[in-house]
Write a structure and sequence with these properties.
single chain, alpha/beta, 8 helices, elongated, binds 1,4-dihydronicotinamide adenine dinucleotide, binds the ligand O=C(O)C1=N[C@H](C(=O)O)C[C@H](O)C1, NAD, NAD binding, EC 1.17.1.8, cytoplasm, amino-acid biosynthesis
């Protein structure tokens, strides 16, 4: 018996990730993009309704299972509230949410009281695997210096990347002695104990690279990931959307859904 595809609305449809999601979903049978939302002009390569307002689209569509959102923090806050009001699950990969005036993290928590909500700073399976390795290295290498470096394309808004922040939290969870995030260095500034160095590079069209360096005891360990293209993130986000549809309200982790 054929299984009905999970019905998606993609926001930020003319953005880099929005385009990639629509393109990638077109090759899959487990998900179907029934509508696309774009506030900026551009061609949406979807055989789907194209709208400018999520609220109106969710009212018009017969059934939507999941909103998939890769936009900007203020849009994510707004879209999470709208999705929850319509009883639709919300999957978002938007980064730069921490400390933003629109309180997108509060909006995600509020939405999760009535619908399933998943936010991941990185939807690649490689980063999900790397996180386990980083926590293990951080626990096994006490007193080693830790430096995190990320590189992204020159259009990226937020720094450091959401992934870098997630990896730093993973290190910090095993190394409570590391209490200071040192963003770059300049002039006379020797390394202090308790620091994690954080370095953000922006250049050309680099999709996304992350490295966590552990150094001490006359050795270095470098754990790194490089995304070959945005399809890597799109596949993961669509896997998450397919897995979260129909679940109970609450906050979900990408790493948990991968194991289910
Ligand atoms: N979690 C993950 O795996 C990944 C996360 N990202 C994140 O996804 C987000 C989007 O990235 P890109 O697609 O490269 O950006 P982009 O700039 O190419 O596209 C952003 C889209 O959001 C829309 N948008 C921006 N502000 C808006 C607003 N206030 N209201 C409605 N729509 C709005 C724009 O019109 C555009 O279509 C960023 O936060 C980025 O860091 C990107 C790649 C992977
Ligand atoms: O903006 C991007 O491009 C990316 N953003 C995410 C982040 O901030 O970590 C994930 C990925 O590295 C690409």
């Amino acid at each position: 018996m054929a299984v009905e595809p999970v019905r998606l609305v993609v926001t930020g449809a003319t953005g880099r990730m929005g385009e990639e999601l629509i393109d990638t979903a077109g090759d899959r049978s487990d998900v179907s993009v029934v509508a696309a939302i774009s506030r900026t002009p551009g061609n949406v390569a979807a055989e789907a309704a194209v709208g400018t307002h999520l609220d109106a689209t969710l009212s018009d569509e017969e059934r939507v299972d999941v909103v998939v959102d890769f936009t900007a923090p203020e849009a994510t806050a707004e879209y999470a509230e709208i999705a929850a009001r319509h009883g639709v699950a919300f999957v978002t990969g938007t980064t730069g949410l921490e400390g933003h005036d629109a309180d997108p993290l509060g909006a995600l928590d509020a939405a999760s009281e009535s619908v399933p909500v998943l936010h991941a700073s990185n939807f690649s399976r490689g980063i999900a695997a790397l996180r386990g390795a980083i926590r293990e290295a951080a626990a096994s290498l006490p007193d080693y210096d830790v430096e995190v470096t990320e590189t992204h394309h020159n259009d990226k808004r937020d720094a450091p990347s959401g992934t870098a922040l997630t990896l730093i939290e993973d290190v910090e969870s095993e190394r409570p002695d590391l209490t200071e995030r040192q963003h770059g260095r300049e002039g006379e500034q020797p390394r202090e104990p308790g620091e994690i160095g954080v370095h953000a590079r922006r250049a050309g069209d680099v999709t996304g690279e992350h490295e966590v360096l552990f150094a001490g005891n006359r050795e270095t360990v470098s754990l790194s990931h490089s995304a070959g293209d945005r399809g890597v993130f799109a596949e993961g986000a669509l896997d998450a959307a397919a897995a979260i549809a129909g679940r109970e309200a609450g906050r979900y982790q990408f790493t948990d859904l991968l194991r289910d």
